[in-house]
Structure formats: structure tokens, C-alpha cells
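re: ur msg from earlier - yeah i can do the 3-methyl-2-oxobutanoic acid complex, just paste it... oh wait u already did. ok heres what im feeding in:
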Amino acid sequence: MSRNKVTVPTLQRMKREGRKITMLTCYDATFMRILDDAGVDVVLVGDSLGMVIQGGTSTTPVTMEEMIYHARIVSRGVTHAHLLVDMPFMSYQASVEDAVRNAGRLVKEGGAESVKLEGGRERADAVRAIDQAGIPVMAHIGLTPQSVHKIGGFKVQGKDQAQAMRLLEDAKILEEAGAYALLMECVPAPLAEEITRAVSIPTIGIGAGPGTDGQVLVIYDMLGMNNSFNPRFAKRYADLHSVITGAVQAYIEEVRSGVFPSKENSY
Ligand code: KIV
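and the outut:
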């Protein structure tokens, strides 16, 4: 089936037309081909790779080199989806020059079609400068995992009136600065819906209820790859932990008993 490439204007048109945007994370070419063939709109090479691929306890150690490596291999499998790549911790916080230079590296070396950074009004200058360099930038507000040590854990944000008001203002400031979309992580559903109505750019939610313009999940979470991670927002669409465990155990059993390889598997 031939389908049009999803671009930033496509995503903005989807919001205007009330069509929901689907987004999943991806870290390698094999998964990318599956996601692309399945028809997902946006693929995010997320710095969540620091946790689900590297086995760390936060995203803060992830480097530019690691993001570029994963972005490059994912980009080999893309034909339809829009390829969004995370800017890792400390690749944009120290200066606007860093932000533009590193966003540029993700495009030039990683094949990114747009980039995502975390933070509210304090990132408006970086967003403006990246956008003016011709690179579309998505802003990530609410729970911003790169600030885990400041926030004090992976917690829902915007629960009290003052925090909610600040998030709403941040969303408008980031739109004005040139963000092409907003990602909202772990914010109360009514607030996410209010922000979605208040801005004209698309909003993508994770743990933000049904009122956003689109949804994103970490692919390993939605496929049920990790038995010990089961947050309320991460609906499981498969239980690959059990499927993979069963397949590996069957292989071990067949090798040990001599059933595999059989004649059909031999030359
Ligand atoms: O890095 C990531 O996977 C993300 C998602 C949680 C949205 O930013």
C-alpha cells in the first residue's frame, strides 16, 4: 500500500480536521519497519532508550552520540511515518547555541525530521532559535523525565491550580515561540484537554487522558515486554514477555532434547 509521508504540516492538518495522531517510540530498524507498515503517524526515537534499552533508572545519562546512533538506524526503516528524535539531557539546556547545534546534528547525522526537547517557558528561546534554523521542534511539558531529580520522581504534574495555570501559560508561550506541537506527559485529563483547546498546534498525550490531539506510548510498554513496569497510563496491547519467554523456553527444551535442529532445519 502506498501512503503519503507524514510531515509537520500533515500533523497540523490532522488537528484542524479532528483526526487523532498516533505516535510510538522506536529504537531500531526492525521495529521501525513493523511500525511503518502498520501505519503509525509519528515514530519517536525517545531518550527513554536510556531505560528500556540501556537498563538505566533515568534518561539523564543518554548522550548525543547514542541518540544519533539510534536515530540513524531507525531512519533506515522509515517510509511513511514522521521521524521525531529526542534531544538528550544537557544537549540544549546550557545555551541556545548548544540547542541549535545539537538539533542540527540530530537532523544531519541522525536523519531526524523534527526534534523534541523538555521544558516550559524557560525553553522558549531554544525553541525559537531551533525553529528559526529551519528545524521543527516539539516541546514536552508536564512530567519532564530529564528533570527527575528536581521534580523528585516520576509524578503527575499540574495537580494544583497554580501548577495547572503555569502549564497552560507555558503551552501558549511555547506555541508563540514556534513549537510545532506539544507533548504532555502525566497531567490531569481535564487540564490536558483545556490546553489542547487553548493552542492551535497539535498536542500529544501520555498519561494525559483522551482530550489531546494524539497519543504516544513507549513501544516496550504497550507490547508488555517488562513484567515489573505497569503504570496505569501504559495500556498493554500484547503480552510479549510471556510470548518471548515461551519461545525461548521451547527452544532451550528442543535443543536439549535433540528435537531442534531437525532434518528440515539442516542442509
Ligand atoms: O523518551 C520518550 O520515550 C518520551 C515519551 C515518554 C513520550 O519522551
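cool cool. The chain is about 40% helix and 15% strand. ping me if u need the other ligands too
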